[in-house]
Task: structure prediction
Amino acid sequence: MKIRLFVSCYVFVLSSLASGAAVAQVSSRDGGAAVSPIAPQDAEPDRTHMEVPVPRVVPPVGQRPRAVSVAKDWVRDGFVSIQVNVDASGNNTVGDAANEPSIAIDPTAPGTYVIGWRQFDTISNSFRQSGMAYSHDNGQSWTSPGVLEPGVFSSDPVLAYDADGRIYYYALQPDRGPGNWACYMYRTENGGVTWPQEVYAFGGDKAWVTVDRTDGIGRGNLYVPWTPNAGAGCCFPGVFSRSTDFGATWMNPISMPVQQFSSTVSVGVDGEVFVVGSTFAFVPKFNINRSSNAKNALETPTWDLVREVDLDGVRAIGGTPNPVGLIGQAWVATDHSAGTTRGNVYVLSTVRRLSVNDPADVMFSRSTDGGETWSPPVRVNDDASGNGAWQWLGTMSVAPNGRIDVIFNDTRADFTVTFSELYYTSSSDGGETWAANIPVSPAFNHTLGYPQQDKLGDYYDMISDNTGVSVAYAATFNGEQDVYFLRIGAADCNGNGLPDDEDVTEGRSEDCDGDLIPDECARDCDGDGIPDTCEVLAGATDCDDNRIPDECEPDFDGDSLIDGCDSDIDNDGVPNDSDLCDFTLAGKPVHPQGHVRGDYDANCVVALDDALALSNCMLAGGPRFPAARLCRTGFDINFDFFVDMRDAAMFMNVFEGASGNAASASVDRYRTNTVAP
Result:
């Protein structure tokens, strides 16, 4: 009787854990406190593009190796597009999909880039994860160690970087609340090689993030707005948050005077925060909100300016090129140059025009007085107006010298609207005039490779410098969706206004490895003043041939064999190619497929849903009852063919927390080979 009573109490505790939707407790210098789920705002009129979580489909053991093809470069008039989503051997994986790329650069090692994207393992399922790759040679080659968290549904990646070399990866994930959706932030300080534990960061669908890189009091602050969609955000009416400690903790979300959809955010020359977005789909209103005190960590941000920006059109969702995706989101950028355009604020978006019959034009407006007033809208694409062509996924960035760069997909060469080309233009006078549009990619069929979601994603991304712009975009050159890096203009990683190759050939910079990239721009993981590639050339161990010394790379199981060369990374007895969870914490009882005993749903996290399954299993009588015999597979942790109190006790030793619903429950989650032990 005592044993039965104790087991019943234990089951009650497990059931309580499973049914009590944990409320996030997020400490913050900004006054973070408990955040409870709040009834969300009514949905916007069109929800077809919104994120919808789906279960993962795991290929059977023995079918995990994938077909590959050569990841070739694609060239158009001297512009070279280099594939980013490659495997460990630099090949393209056949049958997967990658879209919605975002790019960051390490300003302390300017030859270092990181790109994140939505990674679909197969186009037959919309389950997706946080794809990531890094380049330490100005984007000429890419290393993709794998997704940040295998088995975790993740979407809408946005990358940002600060002035001191930290790169941030912000991603949307379901059921890690409070609310149905929330965002998690990852951070790397070594150019993408390793990523410490993720942090709960509020958020919701169509979030964006930027960092204050000025020299003011807000330097290093992170700012995030997101869309107040019903069921797709954490904290309505709070749709803006800030971190003042490099992403470790986050301010309780606050609202903005005008709620905005598909927003982006930019920091002005004096640390002001500008957020732009559209009111709703199909409503011709773009709004800008400004906070002048968000830079002050001691104050809760307030909004001192709200203005409408006329772009002569409406935010477009869906249509021939991108059936359930955005045709373009709103972009805001600020001019930090030393010239006459310093302080200007720019807004750009692809819109469905109002004054002419045109399905999608890229439109631009500027403010020269801090957002108070805005210029009449200007059409950026230079094809014949009203010709039925789509200029879609328009994207903008501003160089330190004030040049405005814009890219967009363009169907002007194909009246069937089946093929797109990536186009580029720029303005050197604050957007008053624009250079002739030029195609910078081969044509690609944008209808190929839809991963159940009929879209190529919702956005591209790019970063401008004084000699050009670095672009991350998606295309279907391989007959499927892949992510590409494109450099437009000469590379100038040291910012001296001269091309890198000329710095080397004319003797202004050393180049120890002969790659025409100045040594001062190269990654130096151990800080000894010698670029990593040169250390490898000099004999440093590099077992995976990625030009990074092994001493700088992660070794999850501590066996002195780095993860990139270890056939059983987590030392659980299950080879990596058969291991459902490649990174199982040491000392946990492991199922033959590589996930921990107690991980009933095999999602590589032992959490509340597993606790609920265990309690149901025990209440049903364990494996003695036919309906519950499957419980033994997941919960007979001590292998005695019964699911009993001993298994419940062992389950608590592997239990990790509330499915990520609390910040404290994020510790000890499973790592990937991009995460240091």
About this structure: The first strand starts at residue 24 and ends at 25. Residues 206 and 262 are 5 Å apart (CA to CA). Helices lie at 2-19, 500-505, 532-537, 608-619, 631-635, 645-654.
